[in-house]
Each structure stands twice: as C-alpha cells, then as structure tokens.
Amino acid sequence: MLEVYFEQDNEAEVFYQLAKQVDQWKATRKRTKKNLVQLHLLEDLNWGERKNQLAPLLSMVFIQCRELPMIQHILMKKYYFSSEEEIERITAIARSLLEKDESVYEDRIHQHELRDTLTTIFSMQIDASFIRFDSIVHFRLHHYIDQLTEMVGLAIDEFKREEEYQDFIHSIREFVRRKSPEEEVVHVLQGERFQIFRDNGELYTIEDLQQVKSRFPLFIFGLEQEEWDISPLIMLAPNHIHMYGEDQTESRTHTIMTIFQERCSFYPTDYFPFYHASFK
User: Fold this and answer.
1) CA–CA dist 261, 239 (Å, integer)
2) What is the pLDDT of residue 105?
3) What pLDDT does residue 280 have?
C-alpha cells in the first residue's frame, strides 16, 4: 500500500479522482488532518512502472491547482505587476504557451518541456511507502520554478507585442477615420499580392498606387515602403472595402478587417463581380 498526503482537501480530491481511473491501482480516500489517499496495487508492477504511473498524476494535480496561482505570484513578486487586468492577460498567454506549441519560442522553450520537468521531479521524489505532495512542492521544485519564471518572461514579451500591435492598429484606424476617401468603394482580391479594383472594375496598377502613396507619409506608422497589401488601402481610405477570397483569417486580411471594421466585408472568391484572368 502507498499513502499520499495532501494539505489541501481539493488537491487530495483531484488526485483521488485521477487515481481511480488507473486500472492497476485501487484508490481509497480518507479525510484525515492531512487528507490521505491510499493506493493498493492490483497488478504486479516493478518500481519504475509504479513511478511512471504516479508521477503524471501528481503533476496533473499541481497543474490544475497550483500552476495558475504560481504564475500570478511570479508576475507580482518577480516582475512587479500589480494591475489585475494585466496579470490576467499575461497569465492567459503563459498558459497558452504551456499548453500548445508556439514556434516563435521553439529555440528557447519546447512544447511541454515544463510539464516534462515537473513530472520528472515528482518521479524522483516518490517514496516506496508514502508521498507528501506539499513537501515536494515547497522544497523540490526550484528548477521547475526557474523555468516557469522564464516562461512568464516570454509571456510578458508577447503581451507587450500585443500592446504595441493594438497601438499600431489604433493609430492607423484614426488616420483612416479622419482622412477623406480617395474612393467610395474598392474591391480587393486575395492572392500572393492583393489586387485592388475600383468600383467600375478597373484594376489599380502599381504606378497608380505609387502616385497616391507619394502624397501620404505612411512611414510614420512603421509601414515598409514596399508593403503593397495594407498600405494602399490605408492610402485610399475607402468608405467600404469588399474583399474576396477563401481565408478570412489570413494575416493581411485580418489586419485590414481589424482596421476598417464595419467598413470591410468579406466574400468567397466566386462572388468577385469582375472578370479576372485567373478564373479561366
């Protein structure tokens, strides 16, 4: 028999419910002062197999009950955040980085690396007869906490990038709102490069757009001079944009729709009203 002790009743209950789902063990819950869960082995498993089964369960208890408060504690004590809204937003970003693969951070923190570290630490601390969950959490998770602190730092970086992006979108949105439209309506066809058409079906050439572009200092928004997807539509500032394509979530399309909001509509390519050579 193996005894697992918890100081918190809810953590003992989470572990008990997880352990009940493992066929090789019979779990018994005893509400003592230290919230005891007793495990009786039903199959002949060697010591390594027992640890491989129990460590993920203990890790899951920590993830469900302790990880979020620990992230918030790191934000307040290590990085000195005090705004509840900012802490909530950064915590959500940190949890998303832990839960899924984010390629932008691949070289620094691999998918599930922290979860693997946590499980390994619990595995190394499992005793043959008893486990004290809180002792492991309080005295054996230093390496994990160091890695989690780095992860929170990455979440803060992402949070700041999102803030900068929102400021960027807001400044362009204000520019478009105040600027007199060059066109009442334009039609935009998705592709490797957006193609922009006047409402009479006439295609805007690069020369046409360069002439319009020369009148507006778009560099103040940080837009590249060679950007031919977003900047032309900002320059034209039409009262309405009809976009046609197959992917509304495509990044350039998403940016345009975010800037123009109710002034932009998206339709399938088949709805494009003008003849185009690629439709042959």
Assistant:
1) 11
2) 53
3) 47
CB 144 within 8 A of CB 117: yes
For residues 239-248, give the mean pLDDT: 95
Residues 188, 221, 208: CA angle, nearest 5 degrees: 40
Higher pLDDT, 97 or 262: 262
Pairing of strands 195-198, 240-245: unpaired
Helix/strand/coil for 136: helix
For the sheet with 2-5, list strands across it.
25-30, 36-41, 2-5, 130-132
Best CA proximity match to 189, nearest among 127, 242, 240? 242
- Confidence category of residue 217, pLDDT binned at 50, 70, 90: low
pLDDT at residue 32 tops 80: no
DSSP characters over 216-262: S-GGGGT--TT--SSHHHHHH--SEEEEEES-TT-HHHHHHHHHHGG
Sorted by sequence, the CB contacts under 8 Å of residue 157 that are 6+ apart come out as none
Q: 2: number of CA atoms within 13 Å, CB side?
A: 22
Which residues make beta-bridge pairs with 41?
25
Tell me the DSSP string of 84-101: HHHHHHHHHHHHHHHHS-
Q: What crossing angle do the helices spanning 113-124 and 47-65 adopt, rounded to 10°?
A: 130
pLDDT at 111: 46
Residue 66 has pLDDT above 50, yes or no: yes
